[in-house]
Amino acid sequence: MLKIGVISNPDSQRNRRGLADLRLGVSGLVHREVDGPRSLTGILTELASQEVGLLVVNGRISEDAGHRYRRWSWFFRHVLSLPNLILAQSAVSRERYIALGAPPERGEAIFLPAVE
Asked: Where are the domains positioned within the chain?
């Protein structure tokens, strides 16, 4: 059975609505909620150990966040090596992911319109 891992932000209304729809249509869903940067490493490691493919969809790193995250580059280099594919919102976001340590071959710049 195909396993799909979903990591969501518990404070995001869009995450909650989208996750409810996803649960209806997908079996084998493994859901975890991120509770800050340190919990993300544990979640990604757990999903990888369960052989759940990891995918970042509609990923975006703002200019301000990119500057803040650079101080944590040692952390993000490990975390961003775990996803199998990163689908960034734009070429600019893709470059920010790579600057933080994501392997360039795993990053794609795409446009996904917001789902309401």
From this structure: 1-53, 55-116
